[in-house]
Amino acid sequence: MHVGASLPDAWAARETFRAAGPETGLVRLRARGSDGRMGPQKTPRTKIQTRNRETILEAALEVFSQHGFRGATLDMIAVEAGLSKPNLLYYFPSKEAIHVALLSQLMDTWLDPLRDLDAAGDPIAELLAYVRRKLQMSRDFPRESRLFANEIVQGAPRMQAALATDLKALVDDKAAVIRGWAEGGRIAQVDPHHLIFSIWALTQHYADFDVQVRAVLGQNRDPIEEAARFLDTLFTRLLAP
Amino acid sequence: MHVGASLPDAWAARETFRAAGPETGLVRLRARGSDGRMGPQKTPRTKIQTRNRETILEAALEVFSQHGFRGATLDMIAVEAGLSKPNLLYYFPSKEAIHVALLSQLMDTWLDPLRDLDAAGDPIAELLAYVRRKLQMSRDFPRESRLFANEIVQGAPRMQAALATDLKALVDDKAAVIRGWAEGGRIAQVDPHHLIFSIWALTQHYADFDVQVRAVLGQNRDPIEEAARFLDTLFTRLLAP
DNA sequence: GTTGTTTTTGACCAAACGGTCAAGGCCACG
DNA sequence: CGTGGCCTTGACCGTTTGGTCAAAAACAAC
């Protein structure tokens, strides 16, 4: 069983399970009302439940990030998790529910680096630190990056709501901070939203398009190490007032 | 039937059908030897064959780029093309063959802007023009961009060979040109490969992650128009010697 | 119009897939 | 140690999917 790099404490500790927006039409699936026999509650109760839900989500991350939603099968996930297929469906009502759970669980963590952008700090240092943190995530959590990439490239059918609400709110907030810096002459005049997009694009590229990057660079090179230096100069030059 | 923006002549004219590398294990599928009944030859002979192959590939582009390889079904493509499913399989031996044909047909066109990078031109003007051309492709051919994105995010199972040979060769070639410019002091000292990656990442982001960009920016904005300005300043600042 | 070839399709098939169910195993707790 | 609830699974089901096939339709050449 492939478990990937051991997750940092903050990562494992996060168990927010933010509910998906009602527009996805998926919440109904989870709320089976109070009919007869059913799987465990939304909030895991026993030790076994928390452990198995974690195992399943870890396996699902591995499989979904590699094959996309349609490309992944319950059998693949079951094998990866070391559980039987009906057992998966004891903990999650459907394949889609596993996917949604994964996405909403990881969303917060994925945006943490942006949240850390501190309006009170030194503008250029703050932004460069953000770039470095995002690049680190591409190195340490490429599967998470690809999971989102797969979802968004295909039109984010299970995430649109979260994008237009939560994500937009956070980005608008931080964009205002950046705009403040620009107007105060502390960084160059650049469009804050597109600055954020550029950071996403440039850092996630090294996770999402890893095979291409490696194919072009050839062997015996460390793409992310090189990218760190390149992006440092790029953003230093771009942001200098 | 969704036909998308009318393709420019140069686009439609291209019919290279570069053979996929033998490593993909797909070429064998096309070469059914000389057994009994079989579909039309690799090289279309009649008018009807060329027309229908084009129709199928156009439909396949629409469907594959939206749903990925596994997410797309032959029925979807058939409906989109206005043909029957067995008819698709009269022109292509399998779903995978359609996908491979699409990828190899589009690969060349996709790289044309990079090929146009002229060692004899003015370095900064050449690079800025490349950025603009790539961004135009994100606007005019988002489906093509997403097709590749889907493929590469999932590990490029049907393209690895082409990446490590054709693509690498072209990029290495152009990287040498850029390195020459840098060493001649005509542009700033930057890693040429990562410079090219950054152009890909920043321009294709607006096609591949379109839903995210639009969700964050809100309505009534033209992402690519704004991106054009932003990327112009970004690369101007980065490349100034 | 007859004939030989190319093109098209309805009916069909086997495998894969998401999901169900009833029954059995397991475990905590009294 | 017994009992009630939690956990697990083999067998099964209906649907979807990629692909086949034989036969019909369309077409081209004479």
Automatic annotation (TrEMBL), chains A, B:
<dbReference type="InterPro" id="IPR036271">
    <property type="entry name" value="Tet_transcr_reg_TetR-rel_C_sf"/>
</dbReference>
<dbReference type="GO" id="GO:0000976">
    <property type="term" value="F:transcription cis-regulatory region binding"/>
</dbReference>
<dbReference type="Pfam" id="PF00440">
    <property type="entry name" value="TetR_N"/>
</dbReference>
<dbReference type="InterPro" id="IPR050109">
    <property type="entry name" value="HTH-type_TetR-like_transc_reg"/>
</dbReference>
<dbReference type="Pfam" id="PF08362">
    <property type="entry name" value="TetR_C_3"/>
</dbReference>
<dbReference type="InterPro" id="IPR013573">
    <property type="entry name" value="Tscrpt_reg_YcdC_C"/>
</dbReference>
<dbReference type="InterPro" id="IPR009057">
    <property type="entry name" value="Homeodomain-like_sf"/>
</dbReference>
<keyword id="KW-0238">DNA-binding</keyword>
<feature type="DNA-binding region" description="H-T-H motif">
    <location>
        <begin position="73"/>
        <end position="92"/>
    </location>
</feature>
<dbReference type="GO" id="GO:0045892">
    <property type="term" value="P:negative regulation of DNA-templated transcription"/>
</dbReference>
<dbReference type="GO" id="GO:0003700">
    <property type="term" value="F:DNA-binding transcription factor activity"/>
</dbReference>
<protein>
    <submittedName>
        <fullName>TetR family transcriptional regulator</fullName>
    </submittedName>
</protein>
<dbReference type="InterPro" id="IPR001647">
    <property type="entry name" value="HTH_TetR"/>
</dbReference>
<feature type="domain" description="HTH tetR-type">
    <location>
        <begin position="50"/>
        <end position="110"/>
    </location>
</feature>
